[in-house]
Amino acid sequence: METGIGHRNCQVTSGGRASSAPHSDLVLPYGDELNDGLMQVSFTLPVAAGALAEEAARQAMKLMGLEDPQVAEAAAIGNNATFFIGYGRLTRPVELSKLRVAKPMWQELDQGTINRLLQETLARPLVVVGAATGQDAHTLGLDAILNYKGFAGNRGLEAYSAFKVVNMGSQVPNESLVAKARELTADAILVSQVVTERNVHLANLTNLVELLEAEGLRDKVVLVVGGPRITHALAVELGYDAGFGPGTRPQDVASYLAQEIARRHVELGHLHE
Amino acid sequence: MEQSLGHEFDRLEAALGLWRKNPDLFTEMLGILESLKDPLHAISLLQEGQVLSPAELFILANLCACVRRIRHLQDQTGISKWPANTVPPGLEPAEVLLAPGSQGQPRFYISDAYSASLAETRRLRKHKQEMWHREMAKQARAVETALGVRISGTGEMAIRKTGRAQLEKARLMPELGETRQTLSHVYFKLKPTRDAVNLETELNLLKAKQRAQETEVLRELSGKLKQHLPVVEAASQALGELDFLLSKAELARATDATRPEIIRPGAGDGSGSGKAGLSAKHRGPGEGLSPGKGMDSGIQPEPGRNSSPGPDLILQGAFHPIVLNEVKSRGGTYQPVSIELDSIVSVITGPNMGGKTVALSTVGLCVAMAQWGLMVPCNYMKFGLYDFIYFQPGEEQTPGLSSFAAEIVSLKQPLARAGERGLVLLDEVGRGTNPSQGRALYAALLQYYLENDTAGSTVIATTHYHGLAATLGVPHWQVRGLATEALGLKDSKGPEAGEGAGWSEGSERTELAGDGLDWLYRHMDYTLQKVGPDTPTPQDALVVAKALGLDAAIIDKALKFHGRGG
Amino acid sequence: MLRLSIDTKTVDRCHEIAENITSRVMEELSSLSTVAIERTVARFAGVDGVTPDGVPLPNVLVDHLAEKGKIHDGVAVHLANACLALGKTPVQVSRMIAGGETDISTLEWQGTEEVTRKAREMCRDSLDKIRARRAEREALLEELPVTQTPWLYVICATGNIHEDAVQGKMAAAQGADVIAVIRSTGQSLLDFVPHGLTTEGFGGTYATQANFRLMREALDEKSRKLGRYVRLVNYCSGLCMPEIAYIGAVERLDMMLNDAMYGILFRDINMERTFADQNFSRMINAYAGIIINTGEDNYLTTVDAFNAGPSVLASQFMNYHFAKKAGLRDEQIGLGHAFEIDPAIEDSLSYELAMALLVRQLFPDCPVKYMPPTVHKKGDIFSAHVLDSNFNLVSVLTGQTIHLVGMLTEAIHTPLVQDRYLSIKSAAYMRRAAQNLGHNLEIKRGGLLDTRAASILDDTLKLLREVNEKGLFAAITEGVFAGVKRLRTGGKGREGVFKKSRWYFNPVEEDLRAGLSDRSQAPGPIQD
Amino acid sequence: MIETALHLADVVAHSGIRSVAIVGTAKNVGKTVTMNYLVSELSAKGLTVGLVSSGRDGEAIDAFTGRPKPSVVAPQGAWVATAEGVLGEAAAGLEIADVSGHQGLFGRLVLGRAAEPVALELVGPRSARELGVLVNKLLDLGADIVLVDGALDRMAAASPKVTDATILATGASLDMDLETMAQQLGFIVWLLSRPEHPVKGIASLAKQAVEKDRVCFIHAGRGGMQGRYTLRPINYPTVLGVEDEILERAGDAAAVVVPGAVSQAFLDSARSWAKQRELAVIASDAVGIFASKRPGVSLYVTRPLNLLAVTVNPVTSLGISHDPREMVRVISAALRDIGYAVPVFDVVSGEKSTEGVSGMAVG
Predict the structure, then answer these.
(1) Is residue B246 part of a domain?
(2) Catalytic site residues of A?
């Protein structure tokens, strides 16, 4: 007779601290030779082209911490503005050991493993509701993650037997998304935000978290946001469980969801604490 | 298998016995287990010889404290009474290591007691810090006096731009540095004096030294703790087992559960070995006994194993905890399930909403719990272990398959394990297809089990199909259904729309119950009774439909059609 | 010029079918009008301004008539009657309604002849003004000629109209011929036109009359400085298509994004509403000499571009015939196309060249609006710049007219001033470098390009036949276009569609038709 | 004691509350500055503070703007709760008393007492419910008062389910124009100050109603039974997406109690419903109300929020600034104009306005 030792016998994943890198701790940009610190920058100054503008550009690069600033190109682009391409050397190294990288905690799993893991954990499909919320009319990213076709040869969540996907499309009010998540007892909510002008996405994303809180659903879903300007750190600060930036493949999101759900399942015992 | 399960139940019973005698003590024990933190990560770090972080060390300190407190409690009941799951002694040295000089609530801090040199560094740093504060405060007071402006705790001060003279003066003071300007104010920050600058340098060095010494303490401590690893691991394992045992006991208490009696299937025969062979001899459809024979006799035949020592699965007063809670929450009374199964195949019939599916899942749940070593939510249970339990899934949507197709695909699973002893729970197979073919298929499936099962499986099948039990000549169980007085359809006693919606001042009503469900709940008798094989299947569908508020005109028409058809 | 060998019979057949499809739609819709059309008529009659709560007066007037159940007669009849009965101007009447001072549905009838005359008269000023603005454009084009094609078209999307004006002028100085002000996300779903200068919007600036005027003045000033007329573009789409066409005509915009089906498919606006509105708005655009831009690029960004060829072409055929029915001349029909083919595909450049050439050749007199790659651009701005270069080359080689300049930072943000500079610079380079290249090359007969074009054209014909069999409404319901399914009875703005009563009268429509049929009086903005 | 002598720390110290949320109307409105001010002033008064964040705070670099942010320094003796993953070497300065849960990215939450002054990054739990648990844990461990730093412009920490009282931080980042800002702030204050229903019978039934996790109607007693009310729960857990369906079931209800989010759409529908008869909307608490404008319908809560004060930050992230004195004055006046005499402070310049604020006198 098997007698497990109860819910506290759970897998513990490391506490998220970045493991200290084995390679050199201090790094500089790599141009022509290692650690030469050479960087290329481009920017525009609202100053008419000329000696003064070039000096201003060099000064701007110095303020960025670049030494030996050189102006490779200075072009008048109208309205008394000048466009610059410059090169300079960064002298202060980046200390790798002092960095903490915010990344969702997951390993890449293949489709079969994801399906198996979820089947073992939930014994039913994981319900994912996705939407581009608020004013956002862009569904390209959302579709790429959710729709069967996926993108770049990586199939979307619909192609996994372990996911039940509801794609609500674009310009979905947060209220409708929350109502749908409640109706379907969603396990995960995927929000796509592409429009970031004037930080509309920030207000919209926090509003969604607050709505979920008010509805008592925040604890019950894995809340994920994706978009070209989204980083994981930003997502966490906004109150999300994970954030996915550009280049994310459906498999990444599927891997994360499967592992996060499995982890929460194991921890169910902790919920009553 | 039966033996180890029996052993597990012995332990559980012992724990429950102790619990009854010492309820307060157990409450405390649960509280302690609750406060336990998962130590596995800390243990694996120790195994690898790594340095533990303060948080991991706290978890170990907590583990030690829990062990100490649990042992103390077990002492009070007499440790000898704990046949297993006693928590090993011998953690005191580790506990002392983790919390020198501390008792009571576990805490972890890299205290001065670990290292005299660390204590000295900390003392010095604190001293220098105070000196720095005094130095800066002196400076701040001088500036405040000279300018008449308050300097904040962070050493910053703001001067309104309108106070020109003051501003000029501030700008000339060597003690101040201008930091920023806003629309209305210029901000200054107090510059450290030369002494303060020196102190800052010293403080930085001291801080680095302190951190290094603290890390050293953690390293040493981790090294020392590694020597206690075996006992820490044993304690962790024991607490885990205890936690599991008590969780099972807690569940048993919460559901007022009973220890099941486990028999060896066919054990009554006495010849012992070859379970499958035995069963085949005794339980298979007896030679010459045609299952169809009893159909017209009206007498309940006893197909199957007449010579067996008694029913193969007895369940008395069983309940499904989730359904029970749901019934309680709406203020209803729950009718437990009692059933005795002594045939390979048994059929359950009953009206819609009559709890056939609940009865089926209750049997499944009780068997599963018993096999997992859990006390069973019933008054009495006796059964033999199964190799597998199959519960035919309900109307779950499988993409690309109709519900009927999904059902068929699923049914292939238990059929593929024909050589094993299974508890096969079937819920209205064929409901998704046309009735005559559905019925034929269902009958054939059950017949197949009757004819081919060699392992002694138990198949329970719910159905609406009239005469299925009789066709097969197997035991027939029926839900009593709606009380007779409720059955008068045209009778005014029948469910009227709006009944249950009556609500009085100061009271509450729920629209949930306003739709006739409440009426059904109150009038439905969920008791399972064994009936003759060809006892007609209750035809309560129309009553149920009426109770649920379907238009009376439709019900009337249905009654007419039904009359014609019947 | 490069030419594909294509089967002219297939082309003729496509035109016939598209003509048939669109005729049927227009026939079905001839009995319908919409609140947006009526608000436009009110604007023609001079109703402008907002109430103290910010509700535009045209909305007040039309909502009032809708509430009283009189909108079926058209706004013009009741407004003219009220002007006569009360002795007030249209705008005064509207203000009175806003203030709750009058109910114009109950005023005494002033006589059909009188009212009809008044209705015509009150819209005449606006029609005159639009003709004057058109003449003004023609004069300016003569004085400040645009000599090179393709015209380089860039976008401003700051959300603040003052900032847009600055950046628009800057882009013109950098070489842009056409400036588009991106509209605020979500405006297409507003059932009114915002009022006044706006300094905030989401991902763009609200299309308002004041904003149009400010941009026009800024670009006119710059045009004179540069000696080259700089065209101004905005969006004539969404729930207020005809109203925006009106204000664009009055403020002398030169181009309008004005697709027949975009709102239905991509904004879930009701079909009947969209088809009715697009027709009336296009009549105004035709009258004002405005070039419309259709939105076929959207098919290419939503589904895989390699396979989208037939739906792009089919849509172009239909957009073209809808446009012709509204009175637009070929020179005013800027059909959309985009370079969205996946660069990972072998021979992608050849396939794209075939498609671009095909579109050009099928609609020889239409100024095709050719749009740059967007979908396959990522954060690597250097590679994106290379991709744009290929797009620039294909554009020049195939003789496109309106060239939306691709931005290397497309995938990252709305263009920085320097992004426009770099992109315009490289597009201008290609325009110079490959100016006559197309005239000196030939397409290999029966080669890769010919085969590809023929196959797309054949599939287009099949698709058009399918649509024709079902009817356009049913085809959309079944998701034939871009895989989007819409119900005829669904979508936003449906409540704003109504059946005309037998007394319905729209003086503007009548005059627009009269003006348009008299082609000789209205020379196009582009020399034939 | 003269009222005007009061500082924000006095207001907090004398209010008798055990926990306070510092929430912001926008980013960069000085939540952390207010938090740090309270930490140092309350500690100076001999109180043991507890520190926790509802999001992420005190990290060196703001995840969105990339600008440096002020860090949080826990004085010796203070209780703190933060995620293990961001604790770093600060762990050595803590006496650790609890480790709980799992916080995904940043690891488990560590609760401890600062054995020496410790500079910290605070990372809080995922949900408001967990935050409430954490606040109570800190109090149990020995904090006199727990300060909860709100995340961004999120209000969840202000819920009475989580904290006893709220300080609202606002600033020029909300809007550069002072009048517009004061107007927007006025609306937020109005929203956060929603009271209980004035009729006792309704208010007490509403309290029961929110426990049911279902939308409920409250009906006035019939036929001579004035003053008695009945509760009628309906089978809807939410109003989202079913606003009209719910109101169609209102009948002659005097109030509708919404356990979850009260959306603007629901308020709009309730408004048109209430044109025909009186219908009050009652939310669980102000944090559950998602109104973008004042609704044309009576709006109440079952648990009012205790808004202690407003703090202002005259400087935006771009460095543009107002005159603090003028800003405090305008905002205070704007709030008084709409009937809310909430004290207003700029904790950096020390400017304040407590005029007309009743119950502020101490002693």
Answers:
(1) yes
(2) 149
A136 touches chain C (CB under 8 A): yes
Across D107-164, where does the E strand assignment appear? 109-114, 118-120, 122-123, 145-149
Residue range of the domain that includes B42: 2-91+228-254
In-domain check, residue B272: yes
Angstrom CA distances, A174 to A222, B471, C190, stand at 16, 58, 19
Distance CA D163, CA D307 (A): 11
The residue among B254, B271, B291 that closes a domain is: B254
pLDDT score for C332: 96
User: What is the percent of chain C where pLDDT is above 70?
Assistant: 96
Residue C528 DSSP class: -
Beta-sheet pairing, B422-427 with B458-463: parallel
Q: What residues of chain D lie within 8 A of the CB of B57, using their CB?
A: 96
Q: Do B184 and D321 touch (CB under 8 A)?
A: yes
Least Cα distance to B78 among B35, B14, B13 occurs for: B14
Q: Does B105 map to a domain? A: no
A176 contacts D55? CB cut-off 8 A: no
Contact yes or no for C200 and A198 at CB 8 A: yes
Give yes or no: residues B246 and B158 share one domain. no
Q: Same domain for B356 and B383?
A: yes
At least 3 CB pairs under 8 A between chains D and C: no
Query: Which amino acid is residue C87, in one-letter code?
Result: G
The answer to whether residue B2 neighbours chain A at the CB level (below 8 Å) is no
Asked if A178 and D63 come within 8 Å (Cβ–Cβ), the reply is no
The pLDDT tens digits for C124-143 are 999 999 999 999 999 999 99
Specify the pairing of strand B524-531 against strand B476-482: antiparallel
In chain C, where are the structural domains located? Answer: 33-123
D-chain residue closest to A268, CA distance: D101
Q: Tell me the HSE value of B535 on the side-chain side, using a 13 A CA sphere.
A: 19
Are B1 and A12 in contact (CB < 8 Å)? no
Confidence check: pLDDT of D206 > 90: yes
Cis status of the peptide bond prior to C525, with omega within 30 of 0: no
- What is the residue-level pLDDT of chain A in tens, covering all 273 positions? 333 333 332 222 333 333 333 446 788 999 888 888 999 999 999 999 999 999 999 999 998 889 999 999 999 998 889 999 999 999 888 888 767 666 666 788 999 999 999 988 888 899 999 998 876 666 667 888 888 767 767 788 988 989 998 888 877 889 999 999 999 999 999 998 876 555 667 888 989 999 999 999 998 999 999 987 888 878 888 889 889 988 788 999 999 999 888 888 876 543 333
Answer whether C307 touches A (CB < 8 Å).
no
Q: What letters, b where the CB count within 10 A reaches 16 and e where it falls short, cover B192-205?
A: bbeebeebeebbee
Q: In the predicted model, is pLDDT for residue C518 greater than 60?
A: no
Name the D residues in 75-94 with CB < 8 Å from any A CB. 83-86
Contacts of D98 in chain B (CB under 8 A): 58
As for how many domains chain B has, the answer is 3
For chain B, percent of residues with pLDDT exceeding 70: 80
**Contact flag C418-A42 (C-beta cutoff 8 Å):** yes
Residue C89 has pLDDT above 80, yes or no: yes
Q: Are B402 and B520 in the same domain?
A: yes
Q: Is A199 on the interface with C (CB under 8 A)?
A: no
Q: C404-448: per-residue pLDDT in tens?
A: 999 998 877 788 899 999 999 999 999 999 999 999 999 999 999
d(C-alpha B347, C-alpha B473), whole Å: 10
SS3 category, B345: strand
**Chain C residues within 8 A of A168 when measuring between CB atoms:** none
**Does residue B464 share a domain with residue B328?**
yes
- CATH of residue B172: 1.10.1420.10
D107-129 pLDDT, tens digit each: 789 999 999 998 888 888 888 88
Give the active site residues of C.
Answer: 262, 297, 369
Domains of chain A: 26-96 (3.30.30.60), 111-270 (3.40.50.280)
Give chains near D: 3+ CB pairs under 8 A.
A, B
